[in-house]
Amino acid sequence: MSTLAEAIMNGHTLRGMLALTREELAAGMSSKTLMSVASDGDKKLAAWMARSESPHLSEQVAEHVCDALELNFVSVFSSAWAKYSELKKCAKETRDDARSTMDVALADHEFTYEMESAVDVLLDGVNVASIPFKFAAVCTVSGLELFLKKGCVYQVRSGKLDLKAEIRCAENVVWTRALAAVTLPGALQLDEPIAL
User: What is the mean pLDDT of the chain?
Assistant: First the structure.
């Protein structure tokens, strides 16, 4: 079982940026909540929980939720920015001429990134239940300038990012965090360019 909020942006992960810990996430989930949302048709999980002295289900589930969110933070932006036709048009110009580069100022914008996952509960190697999770992040971006070449974003220059994230177990909010505005000092060289 694994789900984690980790994304690499210039050496930092999304989990690190959000300061998400397994313990903090587990504290937001009770075994009762997890049992109520688990798809446990033949009640094997419920029977195991009833006879187990210390199952630590919330800690184990939290570890997997944390692992599932190990994704490159830049992918959050690439999925949003790939939808902007004007940005794609500028990227095409730099792709068509390998020597061409372009600075593109982005208008202030907001987008939501969502990812759904489930933690499968195995007893003796048999899947007995599935616990659904949803990660959502609302990003508000202002004052960004992107440096494009070869059809990709290579640098993000200046700008400000506000981020609010939450994790839900079914419809229950089990964790939420708002980041103080992050201001990019100077230019952020991306470890891997964002293809548009």
Answer: 82
